[in-house]
């Protein structure tokens, strides 16, 4: 009994530490745009900003506010996943059709980044929670666009192989250095902080993917090379 108790206590300590770390990270991630918004608003309030600069400052305030909204939405998604409070109704979902819909939603960001999107493979239907499967496809394709290069491409493939459904998202982007690969699914972990600020990621996308995949007993693997693109593969049991 003592060994089990010790294990339970260790689990509780780890969970508590993770919660504290998460809270500290959230506080930091929210404070940064808030400080920026407050600074711009203070300058505008002082009346010393030249008229030609007012629109620029308003744009900066808007951008920082959008960052906060995206972050809060991702935190809410993760909280629901942590608490298993997502409506967990299973339906038959065609991964190919879902990927096509997601790519349609991301056409604007892809065009803005000068990245072309391709869908390959076949229809493959799995039993799952559509909301969570949508989170997986959206976050993977969104990342593949954000961390790509100008003129790059993203290829999404769905297929059935050996009694399993496979979703692959392959990009021609900046890649992930080997020492970072094992940690990219951690909350708020960023390979390149300056680039993440530039592309506007919340640092929670892959953590949401990991949770949503785990709910479906799916495995997620990353094959990447620094400067040579990244391929993420999600394998669902059928």
Which helices and strands appear, and what pairs or packs with what?
Blueprint (H helix, E strand, L loop, with lengths): L1 H45 L4 H32 L8 E4 H11 L1 H6 L3 E6 L3 E4 L1 H17 L6 E9 L2 E8 L6 H4 L11 H7 L5 H11 L3 E6 L5 E8 L1
Helix pairs in contact: 1-2, 2-8, 3-5, 5-8
Order of helices and strands: HHEHHEEHEEHHHEE
Number of strands: 7
Low-confidence stretches: none
Q: What strand order characterises the main sheet?
A: 2-4-5-7-6
Structure annotation, total helices: 8
Helix content: 55-70%
Strand content: 15-25%
* SSE-based structural type: alpha+beta
| Radius of gyration, taken over Cα atoms and rounded to an integer in Å | 20 Å
Keywords:
238 residues; alpha+beta; 7 strands
How would you explain this protein's 3D organization?
The chain is 56% helix and 19% strand. It is an alpha+beta fold and 238 residues long. The strands form two sheets. A five-stranded mixed sheet has the order 2-4-5-7-6. The chain has a two-stranded antiparallel ribbon with strand order 1-3. Strand 4 (153-161) and strand 5 (164-171) form a beta hairpin. Helix 1 (2-46) packs antiparallel against helix 2, helix 2 packs parallel to helix 8 (205-215) and helix 5 (130-146) packs antiparallel against helix 8. The radius of gyration is 20 Å and the shape is globular.
Gist of the model:
This protein has 238 residues and is an alpha+beta fold. The protein has 8 helices and 7 strands; from the N terminus they run ααβααββαββαααββ.
